[in-house]
Amino acid sequence: MTYADDLLKHILDRTRVIAIVGVSANQVRPSFYVARYLQRKGFRIVPVNPGLAGQTLLGESVYGDLKSIPHDVDMIDIFRRSEAVLPIVETALERWAQLQTVWMQIGVENAAAADLAVKRGVDVIQNRCPKIEYQRLFGELRMTGINTGVVSSRL
């Protein structure tokens, strides 16, 4: 799937609160370091994992499911198998009328969930990582994923 850089940048610019569905407390798992990275870039992350519900992860309360989150989120970032995505998206759309983005991680795609979200006016990104896209679009990475070490005032 291809997405215009302008769309990806727009999504990342407008997003403030991200529910990370399927986040792990294991620091070597991609879901953990993506959540940590996004938090360090100024996003508020909301960890969602039923096995960790009630605990604290990266200074945030962990919720067992999307319905338990007591506040609004702008985006859900899904670290679950493709076949598990549809009910997650259905719940998110029921929970938040103002949800802006459904983001499915690398290797995660679900056409039915994407169609449902798009019909509700929600942007959908599939098979991409917001951490990688943020780094690429905001000048932290070359296309190969190597940190350039270049400091720039460019916006």
What is the helix tally?
A: 5
β content, as a range?
A: 15-25%
Q: Outline the low-pLDDT stretches.
A: none
N-C termini distance: 26 Å
In one word, what is the shape?
Answer: globular
Question: Could you describe the 3D structure shown?
Answer:
It is a single chain. This protein has 155 residues and is an alpha/beta fold. Helix content is 32%, strand content 16%. The protein is built from 5 helices and 7 strands; from the N terminus they run αβαββββαβαβα. It has a 5-stranded parallel beta sheet, with helices on both faces. It has a two-stranded antiparallel sheet with strand order 3-4. A hairpin with a 2-residue loop joins strand 3 and strand 4. Helix 1 packs across helix 5 and helix 3 packs parallel to helix 4. The chain is globular and about 40 Å long. The relative contact order is 0.17.
